[in-house]
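Task 17 of the worksheet. Students: predict the tertiary structure of the chain below and write it out as structure tokens. Keep your answer in the requested format; marks are given for formatting as well as content.
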Amino acid sequence: MNTGNEPPVPDGPTPPPGRVKDARGRFITTLAHDERAAQAARLKADNPRMTLQQIADAVGYTHKADAWRAIDKCRKGVVQQAGAELVASEAAQLDDLYVAALEVLERDHVTVSHGRIVTGEDGQPLLDDGPKLAAIRELRAIRESYRKLHGLDAEKKISLSGGVRYEVVGIDPADLT
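Model answer:
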């Protein structure tokens, strides 16, 4: 019976000191953990011959596997950041191309034949729809590239299962032998 003076009994095992869990029971990464992981990664980068156990001892991990996980976490973080920067750069280039194609689409283009502007019976230049149609195709291609860049057109996998049954109608199977 709890009289109110005793500390509450935890529902499950208590995490090690300095480790905090979220509502789902997963460990939460803190700034201190990230700084220690970064320190481990810097040690490995500055001293490639340093063993994981030496890094673990220097940074304060209990096992070399903890040092490896910390270094791997930093490596993945750098790759993700570089990948995000690359996607942003590619998206900016596609945006520039899109604007240029829109400008072509919005302009009027006259028909030219043998270096001369073709005019109608009223003397006005005939408009050429070719450049506008080409701009529309480019706009569509740019949008497609943008969707691919952001993974919006991911492949759809279709799984088929089951068997095929053949049935011979109108023939007695015994006659086939």
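Marker's comment: Residues 56 and 66 are 7 Å apart (CA to CA). Residues 64-106 form the longest helix (43 residues).
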